[in-house]
Amino acid sequence: MENWLKKRVLLSPNKIAIQAGNTKLTFKEVSDRVAVLTARLANKSRKGMRVALLTNNTIDGYLMILSLQQLGCEIVFLNKRLSHEELQYQLEDAAVSLLIYDESL
Hints:
44% of the residues lie in helices and 21% in strands. It has helices at 4-11, 27-41, 59-71, 84-93; strands spanning 16-20, 23-26, 50-54, 74-77, 98-101. The protein starts with a helix and ends with a strand.
């Protein structure tokens, strides 16, 4: 898959990419934040690794998705409404190697 984010940064770095509430991020800002997250995750994950993600629908959650995609990880999205037992089953059934979660959940 072509890296659309890098392409958008080259074509329109200062255009708004994401807006949530009063927060607005340009494509350049999104790219910079994704680069930082990707660097942090690089030693914990690898291409093809299954990573579970349990997060609210926030800008930070979206940036995490983009970072995991940059690394070539397979993302297993978890539903915060599931019980502990249901989440445990999904983690085991999907053979997840890493769980990333929002501490506010």
